[in-house]
Each structure stands twice: as structure tokens, then as C-alpha cells.
Amino acid sequence: MIIVKIQGGLGNQMFQYALGRALAEKHSQELYLDAREYLRPSCKREYGLDHFSIRAKSASLADVKSMEIPTLF
Q1: Which of 24, 30, 51, 65 is the most buried (most CB within 10 A)?
Q2: Judging by DSSP bridges, how do beta strands 31-34 and 2-5 pair with one another?
């Protein structure tokens, strides 16, 4: 499973998706996008990848937490 945290404007979103898609294909994994950033009321940007035919699933909070590395500090 490859999870990419999407943030920023449309150009950044497209780059983040392209990088995630390339990694997912290289490693034969499914791509998940974490776009929770755009749910925050203070976020001034809009999620724009839903206007394109992308091949990715939405990452749930459980998906993201399962991939986190525990910190020792």
C-alpha cells in the first residue's frame, strides 16, 4: 500500500499523485490518497484531483495510522 498525503494547490496535487502513481506501479502496490487537509476549515485551497480520471483510493484514518512509524521521543 502506498499512501500519499495530498496538500497544496492543483499543481502540487498533480505532482504528488504522479509520484505516488509511479511508486505504486514500480512496487505493484495500490495507491491511496490522504486528502484530509482539505477538510480543515482553515484550508484555503481546494482538492482538485477529483476532476481527473485518477487511479487511487481514498485513504481512511485507519489506513494512515497503520502506516505511521512510532516516534521514540
Answers
A1: 24
A2: parallel
Cell of 46: 481546494
Question: Under a CB-based contact definition with an 8 Å cutoff, are residues 2 and 20 in contact?
Answer: yes
Is residue 29 a contact partner of residue 1, using CB atoms and an 8 Å limit?
Answer: yes
**Residue 19 CB partners (closer than 8 Å, separation 6+):** 4
Tens of pLDDT along 37-62?
A: 999 999 999 999 999 999 999 999 99
End-to-end CA gap in the chain? 27
Query: Which residues touch 20 (CB under 8 Å, ≥6 apart)?
Result: 2, 3, 4, 31, 33, 56
AA identity, residue 44: K
Which residue from 64, 38, 24, 63 is spatially nearest to 54, judged by alpha carbons? Answer: 24
